[in-house]
Structures are given as C-alpha cells and as structure tokens.
Amino acid sequence: MPIxxxxxxxxxxxxxxxxxxxxxxxxxxxxxNLSSLDLSGTSIAELPISIGExxxxxxxxxxxxxxxxxxxxxxxxxTKLQMLDLSGTKIIELPNSIKNLKQLKVMRMASCPxxxxxxxIGMLESMEELDVRNCQQLAGxxxxxxxxxxxxxxxxxxxxxxxxxPTTINYLTRLQKLNLSFCDxxxxxxxxxLSLNCxxxxxxxxxxxxxxxxxxxxxxxxxSNNSGQALAQASTLQLQWVGKLSxxxxxxxxxxxxxxxxxxxxxLSRLKTLTLPRMDSFDSEGAAWFFERGQPLIVxxxxxxxDAEESVMETNNYYSQNLSLTIGxxxxxxxxxxxxxxxxxxxxxxxxxxxxxxxxxxxxxSGHLRKARAGINSLNFAETD
Length: 385
Description:
Strand content: 15-25%
Strand order of the largest sheet: 1-2-3-4-5-6-7-9-11-12-13-14-15-16-17
Order of helices and strands: EEHEEEEEEEEEEEEHEHEHEHH
CATH topology of the largest domain: Leucine-rich repeat, LRR (right-handed beta-alpha superhelix)
Helix content: 10-25%
Largest sheet: 15 strands, mixed
Radius of gyration: 25 Å
Number of helices: 6
CATH class of the largest domain: Alpha Beta
Number of strands: 17
C-alpha cells in the first residue's frame, strides 16, 4: 500500500485505500510537524492516544474508513485542526473534547451512525461547515448550542431523523446554505436567518407552507412535501409571498394540490429554472408567462396520481409545442410501472419533427430532440413488440 510522505520533516501523510499497515510511519509522524493526515479509505479502526501530540495538524481525514469506531479524547489537543472528515465511518458519538477544537472550520460526518451531536458543539467558534447528511440515526432535537456557531455558513442535516430545529438557528447571521431535505420528523420551521441564499425543505410531514417572504436573499429555494399527505387548507394564498423573493434563480415547488400563482412568478425576473410536480400546477397565465421567458422547466410526474403513460404523453406534447425553449424533463414512475417506451418516443418525435418544419431555423435547436430521447431512454421503460 503506497504511503506518500517525507522523512523527518514530514508535513503531509497520505495513506492510500486498503489494509492499514502504516502504523510505524504514523508513530514516526507523531514526532514531526505533520499538518495533513489523510487515512481515507483504509481499514484503520482507531487512532492512537498519541494523536494529540500532532500539535501542528490542520487536516485530518478518515473518510470511508468503514472499520473506524471512535475518536480518542486526545483529539481535543489538536488545537490547530481546521478540517475533520469522518464521513462513512462507524462513529456513534463524538468525544467531549471535540469542543476544544477552536480553529475547526469544516466537520463532515455524512453517512455515519452518529446518534447525537454534543452539547459542547457551540464552542467550535470557527465552524463554517457542518455536514451530517444521511446520518439516519441522528435523532431528537438539534442542540440549541448550534446557534452559537456564529461563523457557520453551510449546514446540511438532510436525510436524518432530527425532529426539531431550534429557534436559536436564527442567530446564525452568516448562514448561507441550509439543507433540511427528507427530515420527515420535523413538523415546523422556525424563523431562519436573513443571510440564507439556499434553502432546501422537503418533508413528507409538511402540512402548512411557511411564509418565507422575509428571506429576500434566497437564490435557490426547494419546498416540497415529497408527495406526502395533502396540505392542510391548500390554497394559493399560501404562496403569495413567493414573488417577494426577487433574487430567486432556481425554484422548486412540489406541493400536493397547491398551484403556483402566476402573479407571483411574474415578479421573479431572475428565475432560470422552475420545478413543479405536474403541468397542471400552472394556471394558464403562469404557463404562458414562463414559456415566454425561454427558461428551463422541470415537471415531476407522479405515477400514483395520474395514468402514467397518458401523463407522459401530455407533458411531451406540451413541451413539443414550445421547443424554442430549453426544456428539462424529470419523471419518477413507480418501480413496477411498465410503459411502452417505443410509443412514447414515437409520439414525442413526431411532434418534434412537425415543429421542426414549422419553426424558422434560428429557433430550432437540434439538440432538443437528442436530449429528449436520451432523457426518455434513461427511464428504462419496458420495451414492447
């Protein structure tokens, strides 16, 4: 197994993936000025207590070390550590001494079986990025101390079992990206910091659409109930704040039985991409307005809600009438859905060819047909004779 390092003045130590046989060199490095230690993908199960002697260490990666179970308390002596990557390890909890890492800027623990974040996490005053996505055993409320991470700009707790976000999150005045997708145990959204420019909220448990009109710095907004239960008191009134988010460039509104008011879309002059659950999420004025802008539209059709094949045909026909635009198509059928891909493609292709003859050359983009066919073929529909 290759080990890249220098001799007595080693600053960087990288052990490539595979069985870990670098313990001797690791012991030697403890007496050096090591600043970067990358053990990602190795079979290492633990770090020696003497790891705390690496007083100059700034970067430590144990990412995808699938046998790694626990950090020693001595990790707290690494007071110059700025980056800690524990993604894909088997760590269940962090040592209490983690609170001593005052210069830690990035901590990644994606896809770990970690069950809780330590209360002392608020003492990590330099933290800029905290990533615990897909930590499915991370449950309960996020610690209120998270509101003390005043340098935090990226927080990703998507695909966890967290049930509540503390109101102290509003104290994070530098927070720019917040991902709460698939946190299906969260019931409500607290007031969020005005600094946010990217917010992803996709909960099957979402019942009421929050008023986010105060988040005027948002550039990306994804709001969805993941085809869950119908919203309580579904009404376009619940979306009458959307037009106030004038900086939006990417908008996803996949809310069951809640159409998008065209008056709100008309205020979004910077909007580049719009994602809706179905074509009937538009009113007629909204559809005309969006297609006139020449921006990508993504429609997510749900096979459980409509006849799958008819839905695809109608959506394709709608697109083919507007091929002077760049249109995206995203459809997610049920696993056992069988469709005649040949018939679907033939209908779409015929519409495209007819339009090709009608449109002047400067409005026809040959890539549309190719991209559309590639998109349909990628769905792996059942072929018929």
